[in-house]
Design goal:
This protein is of the alpha/beta class. Helices cover about 35% and strands about 15% of the residues. The strands form 2 sheets. A 4-stranded parallel sheet has the order 1-6-5-2. Strands 3-4 form a two-stranded antiparallel ribbon. Helix 4 crosses helix 7. It is globular. It binds zinc ion (2 copies). One zinc ion binds next to helix 2.
Length: about 230
């Protein structure tokens, strides 16, 4: 895949956030790394920012928990993460996605090998027509980095998107849920422990629907690993 429209896609030896020239392994300068909006205090279930809860889930998750078991997001979806994810997804700047995925991998690695033992990575699938438009699945790119860095298997074929669900923004929560209820299909995955991989978690409705499909197909546990948490 060639991205002629974005010359920065060809210049991985500069910081993906500010453009300063670099010589390190990570395409991120020290100044930007120090100012990243790291996301540490999140609800263990949905990653909604939650300070001083001592690991207890948020009120929303206590009332109506999502159908995924846990959610981990490395960053808050604020400046400059929002802009970097936009350039990754919509302008094919793969170096930006790679840097953010490496930060997520470090975050998961810091939790120790037990945390990820037995996990299979499943990127959130794109509908084939959307995949053809974009040229790549951003979640699959993130999952590839996690698979390599954390030595985890990846099984993209376990989940597929059966229907396009584009215009979710105009829908309220209940309508979103209905719209997504039949959006995904899952292959048999009895007793597997799955981590869904996505770029941004916003309402969690997509991950919820996908987790439900995988659970119905036999998954023992489904969690979500995302680059960033949006409010
Ligand atoms: Zn920088
Ligand atoms: Zn929650």
């Amino acid at each position: 895949m060639v991205y002629k429209s974005n010359p920065r896609a060809w210049l991985p030896a500069c910081c993906v956030l500010c453009g300063v020239a670099l010589h390190g392994l990570l395409d991120l300068c020290a100044a930007c790394a120090n100012e990243l909006p790291l996301h540490r205090d999140g609800c263990p279930r949905c990653a909604m920012p939650l300070e001083g809860a001592g690991g207890a889930p948020c009120g929303q998750c206590q009332r109506q928990p999502p159908r995924f078991d846990a959610c981990l997001a490395a960053l808050r979806y604020d400046y400059p993460v929002r802009e970097a994810i936009g350039r990754f997804k919509f302008h094919g700047e793969l170096a930006a996605g790679r840097v953010l995925a490496l930060l997520l991998a470090r975050r998961i690695a810091a939790l120790g090998p037990e945390y990820r033992a037995g996990i299979t990575l499943v990127p959130v699938p794109l509908h084939p027509t959307r995949l053809a438009e974009r040229g790549f699945n951003q979640s699959e790119r993130i999952a590839r980095v996690l698979a390599r860095e954390l030595a985890l298997p990846m099984a993209p074929a376990l989940a597929a998107r059966a229907r396009r669900t584009d215009d979710q923004k105009a829908l309220d929560a209940a309508a979103r849920r209905r719209n997504l209820a039949t959006a995904f299909t899952a292959a048999p995955c009895r007793a597997q422990r799955i981590a869904l991989v996505d770029d941004v978690i916003t309402t969690g409705a997509t991950l919820d629907a996908l987790a439900a499909a995988l659970r119905a197909a036999g998954a023992a546990r489904v969690e979500a690993w995302c680059l960033a948490r949006s409010l």
